[in-house]
Specification:
Blueprint lengths: L1 H17 L8 H11 L4 H12 L5 H44 L3 H30 L2 H7 L8 H16 L4 H15 L2
Helix pairs in contact: 1-4, 3-4, 7-8
Length: 189
């Protein structure tokens, strides 16, 4: 168990250190973590996203808590998120101490210029991974080779409806999560 907790701490420390861009940027790291450790699979990541988006708190911390608890119980639910946020806390403390001295530096500006597209790319990769799981039935398609079996039509319609509602109206995202949960129950997604 101790070795497992150390591995959990290392995996989330690494994720926290390199996942620039917030909770969604942690998704590629989670997919890789699930593959290398066997603690969870891609479907579990989709469930983690749903749970993390519908519960209070930062998405990455919620997912680290979920993985930690799912894999190692209460102690894991503490080790996972603490390991995830530790690098950020250290980096922010260091940066806050020196950034004022170097904020006009061309090198600092160049670093931030490079980090913005990197975090955008991580978020897009994570979004596409989630879309693949939520909107497609790859197993059905591979079994039948019928293109009509590739798409999860109910999920695509629900995603489109929520997208257009959010674009046209000023509904709070919590209402959309509740709406989607009710639709999922009613229409048996």
């Amino acid at each position: 168990m101790m070795m497992g907790l150390l591995r959990l701490a290392f995996e989330f420390f690494k994720t926290g250190l390199f996942a620039v861009g917030g909770g969604l940027a942690t998704l590629p790291f989670l997919y890789a973590m699930g593959t290398t450790t066997g603690w969870f699979n891609a479907q579990d990541v989709a469930n983690m996203i749903a749970i993390s988006e519908s519960t209070p708190g930062p998405m990455g911390v919620n997912m680290a808590t979920y993985v930690g608890f799912h894999s190692f119980g209460i102690i894991g639910s503490l080790v996972g998120p603490l390991s995830l946020v530790f690098p950020s806390v250290v980096i922010i403390v260091i940066i806050s101490k020196i950034l004022n001295k170097f904020k006009e530096s061309k090198m600092v500006q160049d670093v931030f210029y490079g980090l913005r597209p990197a975090s955008t790319g991580l978020i897009i990769a994570a979004g596409l991974g989630v879309a693949k799981i939520a909107l497609l039935h790859l197993d059905n398609f591979l079994d039948t080779k019928n293109i009509l079996n590739l798409f999860n039509y109910k999920a695509i319609i629900l995603a489109a409806v929520i997208y257009f509602i959010m674009k046209k109206k000023d509904f709070h995202p919590i209402l959309m999560v509740v709406f989607a949960a009710v639709i999922g129950i009613v229409f048996k997604f």
